[in-house]
Amino acid sequence: MNKFTQSRGKYPSIKKTLLISAFLFLSACSKYEKAADNLDFLKYEYFTCDVVRVADGESFFCQPPDMDMEKIRLIGISIPAESEKEAKKYCESILRRGTLVKIEPGKEQKKEIADIPAYVFVPGGKMLNVLLLEKGYAEPVKKEINKKYMSLFVGAEKKETPEEIEIIEEEKQPWLR
Questions:
Q1: Residue 60 CB contacts under 8 Å (≥ 6 apart), including other chains
Q2: In 61-135, which ranges are continuous DSSP H helix?
Q3: At a CB cut-off of 8 Å and minimum separation 6, what does 152 contact?
Q4: Helix, strand or coil for residue 59?
Q5: What is the pLDDT of residues 33-64, one digit of tens each?
Q6: pLDDT tens sequence across 113-149
Q7: What's the CA gap between 92 and 94, in Å, rounded?
Q8: CA distance 18 to 77
Q9: CB 104 within 8 A of CB 116
Q10: What Rg, from alpha-carbon coordinates, does the chain have?
């Protein structure tokens, strides 16, 4: 045997080991996504954070413990342009700096740069998304709403007060009363 075949004989075990290691690594990586999908139940159902500031009527910035600041978008509502200013003021009155809120992310998770779509519970346990609907600042976006909260959102649309009903009745023609 010459030196070439002898040296070639020493390295096949290393090559085989590297080849097998690479194969195992690649097969493990391809199965990672499937395993991650199966472990969905391990994701947090909710987390808490301190409010930093209100961005607009539909979103605000908060600081979860030991994490970077995140932008949270209220899911299930849409604020019309004419209500935007009032909605922001209302949110600022509730979400003062340092207020601890409970965030329940929606089914659609955060995209790379976008906000976290979530249901936001303020101190006292009320959902901010629903409060904005009750005050008449927002409209429900039913395709975004989780089935668990659908009845809350549908029942929360602003209802006229007795005074508003009286004004509406006065504006009607006499034959429509």
A1: 51, 52, 53, 54, 71, 72, 91, 95
A2: 84-94, 128-134
A3: 127, 130
A4: strand
A5: 555 555 554 456 889 999 999 999 899 999 99
A6: 568 899 999 999 999 999 999 999 999 988 888 888 8
A7: 5
A8: 54
A9: no
A10: 28
Phi/psi of residue 73, each to 5°? -110, 130
**In this structure, are residues 125 and 131 in contact, taking their beta carbons and an 8 Å threshold?**
no
Q: Which residue has the tokens 């932008």?
A: 71
Contact between 95 and 141 under an 8 Å Cβ cutoff? The reply is: no
C-alpha separations of 138 from 124, 133, 172 in Å: 21, 5, 26
How are the residues of the chain apportioned to helix, strand and coil, as percentages rounded to the nearest 5? Answer: 45, 20, 35
Residues 6+ apart with CB under 8 A from 69: 52, 61, 62, 63
Q: Which CATH class is domain 47-155?
A: mainly beta
Question: What dihedral do alpha carbons 18, 19, 21, 27 form, nearest 10°?
Answer: 160
